[in-house]
Design goal:
By secondary structure, this protein is of the alpha+beta class. It contains 9 helices and 4 strands; from the N terminus they run ααβααβαααβαβα. The chain has one domain: NADH Oxidase. A 4-stranded antiparallel sheet has the order 1-2-4-3. The protein binds flavin mononucleotide. The site of flavin mononucleotide has 9 residues, from β3.
Amino acid sequence: MSNVLSVLKERVSANNFDFTKTISEADIKEIVSYATEAPSSFNIQHWRFVAVNDKAVQEKLKAAAYNQKKVADCSVTFVIFGDVNGVDKLALAYEPMLKAGAMDKATFDGMLGMANGMYKGNAQGCRDEAIRSGSLAAMNLMIAAQAKGFISAPMIGFDPAAVSKLLGAPANLVPVIMISVGHAAPGNWPRKPRFSTDKVLSFNSYKESF
Ligand SMILES: Cc1cc2nc3c(=O)[nH]c(=O)nc-3n(C[C@H](O)[C@H](O)[C@H](O)COP(=O)(O)O)c2cc1C
């Protein structure tokens, strides 16, 4: 198994994918299974994934993504959505724990009550959480893809309404991010430098360094 710290240093946002190569459905499912290991508030798991690996649909998705070539060149483009009504499905997430005796009924009711208190009627909070959960899952997805020897490209350069319509996503699903995954073709950029850790890290109170 790959070392996660090396994989974090290896991942880059790729532009050039080998359009002749595919990724099996089993690999796609495995990558998504790692994505769903991400944490989410109350374990609501707002994320939903549409894996677009049919070239005809990839071409339509590319058109909705301002013709970004990689969307159709790659083996699969994932669209990650976040469910703004995710809290309504929380009981489903907790039921297995209740049944297994890992959570008692009072805790089950208490957790649901807290989650509803936090999110019901709080449209901004629901949207923030859908984006936050979807983003954490997206990062897991890219790291899992990298660890399996693929490359990836995250994108927000797309028309969200057009993407939702194309993929038949209901109104409660907000498009979070699109991620192309596939096999490398030559010519991708090397790792881009980052601001130094000292510039972005403060201890105990914020220190401006920009
Ligand atoms: C939220 C988000 C949106 C992005 N949207 C696009 C995009 O639409 N097209 C693109 O080519 N790259 C996009 N990128 C890739 C960034 O340009 C890239 O992550 C950044 O330059 C850092 O490079 P690295 O990922 O190789 O470290 C996006 C990245 C993120 C996180």
